[in-house]
């Protein structure tokens, strides 16, 4: 789970992240904090997700890998081109978000949708997991997984959740063995 609350103070964000980390204990859920490395480390989150307005991934990764972050601390990077995904891997990122794959209002500032062909190219270009983002829903999420994505980020699908049965099926196939896809 990624905590993306950009309007909270540092203290409020820490309190939220720490509560999420404690709630996730004993479950398979991992908590990541968006942009705020300081909060992620202080709250003992699993990692930090670096967006386009974060510090440069290379600098953050170097600092973390220099013994300043806990062992196993994960660092993800938001990427909007195949080259960005390759640069994230070279810098030492744990994973990359790639998109937008499809049109979505929240990602229009990052340009036209990348489409499935670019998703295939991005997934094939690196060894780190690539997570598809942007306009992903129950109707096209499986297509992203088949294209090589290790997972999907589907904010609107979970926020709206108007079709509980479709949402439940989507989550179920995300956890199914790849042969069942």
Fold and architecture overview:
- The protein has 181 residues and is an alpha/beta fold.
- It folds into two domains: 1-77, Alpha-Beta Barrel (TIM Barrel); 80-181, Aldolase class I (TIM Barrel), CATH 3.20.20.70.
- The protein has eight helices and seven strands; from the N terminus they run βαβαβαβαβαβαβαα.
- The protein has a seven-stranded parallel sheet.
- Helix 4 (82-91) runs parallel beside helix 5 (115-125).
- The protein is globular.
- The model has no long low-confidence stretch (mean pLDDT 87).
Question: Helices and strands in order, then pairings?
Answer:
Elements: E1 2-3, H1 10-24, E2 32-34, H2 37-42, E3 47-50, H3 57-68, E4 74-79, H4 82-91, E5 95-98, H5 115-125, E6 130-133, H6 141-146, E7 151-153, H7 155-160, H8 164-174
Parallel strand pairs: 1-2, 2-3, 3-4, 4-5, 5-6, 6-7
Helix pairs in contact: 4-5
């Amino acid at each position: 789970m990624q905590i993306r609350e950009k309007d909270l103070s540092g203290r409020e964000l820490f309190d939220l992240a720490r509560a999420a980390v404690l709630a996730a204990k004993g479950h398979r859920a991992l908590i990541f904090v968006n942009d705020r490395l300081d909060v992620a480390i202080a709250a003992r989150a699993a990692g930090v997700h670096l967006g386009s307005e974060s510090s440069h991934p290379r600098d953050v990764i170097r600092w973390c890998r220099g013994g300043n972050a806990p062992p196993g601390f994960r660092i993800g990077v938001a990427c909007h081109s195949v080259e960005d995904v390759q640069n994230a891997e070279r810098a030492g990122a744990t994973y990359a978000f790639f998109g937008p794959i499809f049109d979505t209002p929240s990602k229009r500032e990052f340009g036209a949708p990348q489409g499935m062909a670019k998703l295939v190219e991005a997934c094939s270009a690196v060894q780190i997991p690539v997570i598809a983002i942007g306009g992903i829903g129950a109707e096209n999420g499986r297509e992203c997984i088949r294209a090589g994505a290790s997972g999907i980020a589907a904010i609107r699908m979970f926020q709206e959740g108007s079709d509980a049965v479709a949402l439940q099926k989507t989550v179920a196939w995300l956890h199914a063995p790849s042969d069942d896809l």
